[in-house]
Amino acid sequence: MTYGIVLTYTVTPRWLALSREQRNAMRAAHLEPVFAAYADRVTARFFDAEAFHGRISDFAVLETEDLGAYYFLIEALRDTPVIAEGYLTFGDVFLGVEDGFAAYERALASGAEPR
Q: Are residues 35 and 86 in contact, defined by beta-carbon separation less than 8 angstroms?
């Protein structure tokens, strides 16, 4: 099964106080290596939302067939200075199964016990 995850997050005033060059350096040094380490199991797309939403500033859309890899990705992110030092905070997480109903129907049709 392919899982889709929407991970909302907000950058803090501490992050915004950094120059764009400092932000880019922190992103390159701390965030990009974590996503690269899991890129074979978790794909990620990033969206800015602050112009459209008052509660979050950004969100990521992640896809994986391995929820363990997703979980470890999040743990690795939490260990970075970007999260640990309060530059970014996670918000709501939405998890869904791509075409889950179709997998269920295939299991029913095959006579297998849906799990």
A: no
d(CA 77, CA 7): 12
pTM score over 0.90: no
Label each residue of the chain as H, E or C. Answer: CCEEEEEEEEECHHHHCCCHHHHHHHHHHHHHHHHHHCCCCEEEEEEECCCCCCCCCEEEEEEECCHHHHHHHHHHHHCCHHHHCCCEEEEEEEEEECCHHHHHHHHHHHCCCCC
Asked whether the beta carbons of 1 and 98 are under 8 A apart, the reply is yes
Q: What is the mean pLDDT of residues 22-32?
A: 97
